[in-house]
Amino acid sequence: MSMDAVSFWNRVKQLIKSNNTTQRGLSETIGLSARTLEIKIGRKSAPDVFEAYKIAQALGVSVEYLVTGSDTNPAERELKELKERLKNLVE
Fold first, then answer.
1. Packing angle, helices 5-18 and 49-59, rounded to 10
2. Do the beta carbons of residue 16 and residue 59 sit within 8 Å?
3. How many other C-beta atoms are found inside a 10 Å radius of the C-beta of residue 68?
4. For the stretch 54-65, what's the b/e string if a residue is b when 16 or more beta carbons lie within 10 angstroms of its beta carbon?
5. pTM of the model
6. What is the DSSP letter of 19?
7. How far apart are CA 62 and CA 84, in angstroms?
């Protein structure tokens, strides 16, 4: 199965916004230069598996979500929803 890099990066950009961060902030978190991340996003280049994992971890989602747009693990989905509810309660 090949990855749709355009959809992957669109989901990443959406999550960057919803997590109130920036591409630079994400790049610092995952240990990738801001320029390299910018180029990958701009060229719609598929990340390697390690980059995809780091990006997913930094954005609080699964690699599966970034690749497919859905999570099949209900426990992970529930945990994400609980984290969001807690975040909203704190704000």
1. 30
2. yes
3. 16
4. bbbebbebbbeb
5. 0.74
6. T
7. 15
Amino acid at 69: G
pLDDT score, position 1: 41
d(CA 71, CA 65): 5
- Token pair of 7, please? 């959809």
Residue by residue, pLDDT tens for the chain (91 residues) are 457 889 999 999 999 999 999 999 999 999 999 999 999 999 998 899 999 999 999 999 999 899 988 877 677 778 878 888 888 888 7
Taking the CA atoms of residue 80, residue 13, residue 56 and residue 69 in that order, the dihedral angle to the nearest 10 degrees is: 70
Q: 40: helix, coil or strand?
A: helix
Contacts 24+ apart (CB under 8 A), 33-40: 40/9
